[in-house]
Amino acid sequence: MVQGGAYLDDPLFWPVHLGSRLRGEDAQRAAFGADWDAAMELYRRLSAEHAWPVFSVPLRSGHTIYVVYRNFVDEGGVDYLIHQPAWSEAETLAVDDGHFMGPGMAWTELLSAARQPGVEGTADADARLLLLFPTLGDARLPADAAVALTTALAALTLIEEPVAVAKALLENQGQWAPARWRSAGGVWINDGTHSYRNPSNAFALPEERLLEISSALQGEAGHHFRREAE
Question: Which of 10, 93, 160, 188 has the most beta carbons within 10 angstroms of its beta carbon?
Answer without folding.
Answer: 93
